[in-house]
Amino acid sequence: MLFQSMQGISIASAVTVILLIWVGTLRNPLKAAYLFIKELLTSRKFLLLFCIMVGLLLANKYELQIEEKMNYHKDFTPWVFSLEGHFVQHLQNFFHSGYITPVLVFFYVVVFQSLLVASLGVYVSDQNKVFVLATCFAIIINYTVAIPFYLFFPVNEVWSYPPSGAQFFMLEVFPNFEQEYRPLSGLNNCFPSLHTSISVTMMVLGLRSGNRRFGLITTVSAVIIVFSIFYLGIHWLTDMIAGTILGLIASNAGIALAKLSLRSKDGVMLREQGKMFG
User: Beta partners for 189?
Assistant: First the structure.
C-alpha cells in the first residue's frame, strides 16, 4: 500500500514539486519560490490570473456540492459504453501487474498536481513571463470548459459501470481512495478527462517554452498519466480524446493570450514614453 491519507499525498506532492523544479531548471527551488512570490507582489496581471485560476480550482471542488443540489439526473455512461465497449477492460487485462500499479497511482495522484505547481516555478525561475501567464490562462480555460460538462453531461468512471468489466486497481495501493480522495473528484466527472487535458496542456507548454529538459519531463509525465487513466479503470477512451482536444486548444490559446497580454502592456509603455519625449 503506497498511500493511506491525503496528508501523505500532500507531503509526496511537495517533495515532487521541489524535485521537478530542481531537475527542470538545475537551480535552487527556493529561488523559484522567492521569484514566484515576488512576481505575485509586483505584477497585478499575474496576481489576478493566479487568483482566478485558484478560484476555478476551488469551484471544481465545490462542483460536487452544486451537483447534489441540482434536480438533474441524466446519465450518459450507457451511451459512451455503446461507443467503445470493453476497450478499458481489454487494456487492463493485458497490462495489469503489481509492479506497474504503484507507479501509475503515483503519477495519477501525485505527479499530476505537482506538474501544475512546478510549471509555474520553472517558468518563473526561467524568467519566462509568457509561459507563466500562459500556464494560468490555459488552466483557466481547461476548468471553465470542463465544469459545465461535469454538471450537465455526467459520465461515470469505467470501473463503476458493471457492464464495462473494468476493475478499480487504484485500491491496490490506495485503499482509502474513496474516503480520502473522492471528495475532490466526483464519480461522474469523467467527460472530458481533466487528467488528460491538464497533462497535455503542461506537455505542450513545456515543449514550446524553450526549456528542453522540462519539455521532456512534461512529455513523459503526460504519456504515463494518460495511460494510467485507462489502466486504473477510471476514464473512457472518449474522455481521453475530448481531454486531449481540450488540452491542445487550452495550451495554444493560453500562449496566444499571454503574448497578447504582454504585447498590450509593452504598447502602453511605449505610448507613455512617447508622450514623455514627444
Answer: 155
